[in-house]
Write a structure and sequence with these properties.
heterodimer; A: 128 residues; alpha+beta; three-stranded antiparallel beta sheet; 3 strands; B: 189 residues; mainly alpha; Rna Polymerase Sigma Factor, Chain: A; Arc Repressor Mutant, subunit A; 2 domains; globular
Chain lengths: 128, 189
């Protein structure tokens, strides 16, 4: 027997079932890969969204001062606290003219004038 | 009022490629049907076992599915499939330790004189078995040139060699195949 072209091309062919089996296996694998890809895409999308949210929050925190939330309205400044001087409500005392306690002229008797609370009453005490 | 002739869209092979590229599973299945004989038969000739050939064909078509976007037209698919089939079969054979089968020593020792008793079916099986004993490159050249009927330039492009090398491989391969077949026939008788 010589392996001429006729006999080489006349080698046993795969059966129809073999072709179907390959087709079936390929389609099953393609569907499986599609599912895996779509799941991976979903997971990646969720992960990306979470990452973006975290990054956004971090960026926001870095921009705002740490003291608290942003102030929306500023209250007018309070006036400087000044300790009020203690008001003195006492009536000014009437100025009294200095009255010499001892009016004494040489050759005259020493008169001691005693003033009372009542201005109309004056006690004169003459010392001889 | 005139009657407008109904326009029937005829789906050509190019549409199949375009639809498959868009992700239509039925279109890809159609594309597979168009090339499955080429792929599975070549893989079977190269590997010798239908189970291995099916594994190889599956891998080839999965690669085709992933690479659909690289093809501009359907005519580009066929040579690409041959090239990938040869590569996948080579990888699979290496992985499974079946790059080239060893010809049993007993085949040389047993001489027979009843060659004429071997019927056609047995001859086909014998030839298919003999192919698996050929060195890998010679086997690929014989399968593509002599069995698949590609021209030498095409085979050279698929195997990444020159037409002169392919011609040499085919010639050497045929001589070797003849020798192997004779040995196998003797072993059987």
């Amino acid at each position: 027997m010589m392996p001429d072209e006729f006999s080489l091309r006349d080698l046993p062919e795969p059966t129809e079932a073999s072709y179907e089996a390959v087709r079936g296996r390929v389609m099953v694998e393609i569907r499986r890969q599609k599912r895996v890809r779509s799941t991976a895409r979903m997971v990646a999308a969720v992960a990306a969204a979470v990452l973006l949210a975290v990054a956004g929050l971090l960026a926001l925190q870095q921009r705002t001062p740490m003291t608290g939330p942003p102030m929306l309205a500023r209250a007018p400044e309070a006036p400087a606290f000044v300790v009020p001087a203690k008001a003195v409500h006492t009536r000014p005392k009437p100025k009294r003219r200095p009255i010499p306690l001892l009016a004494h002229a040489p050759g005259q008797p020493l008169v001691v004038r005693m003033q009372t609370d009542d201005p109309n009453v004056v006690i004169l005490w003459m010392v001889d | 009022m005139t009657n407008c002739p109904s326009i029937v869209a005829v789906e050509g092979p190019a549409d199949v490629l375009a639809r498959a590229r868009r992700g239509e599973e039925t279109a890809f299945e159609e594309l597979m049907r168009m090339h499955e004989r080429q792929v599975l038969r070549t893989a079977l000739r190269l590997l010798g076992r239908i189970e291995d050939a099916q594994d190889a064909a599956q891998e080839v078509f999965l690669r085709l599915y992933r690479k659909l976007s690289i093809f501009g037209s359907l005519s580009e698919v066929r040579p690409w499939l041959y090239r990938v089939t040869v590569n996948v079969c080579h990888d699979l054979a290496r992985k499974r330790g079946r790059l080239a089968a060893e010809l049993p020593a007993s085949a040389v020792l047993v001489a027979g004189s009843q060659e004429e008793q071997i019927n056609l079916g047995q001859r086909r099986e014998l030839l298919a078995e003999a192919l698996t004993y050929l060195p890998e490159k010679e086997r690929a050249a014989i399968v593509l040139r002599e069995i698949e009927g590609l021209d030498t330039a095409e085979v050279a492009e698929i195997l990444g060699s020159t037409p002169a090398t392919v011609r040499s491989q085919v010639s050497t391969g045929r001589a070797r195949l003849r020798e192997i077949v004779t040995r196998l026939e003797r072993r059987r008788t």
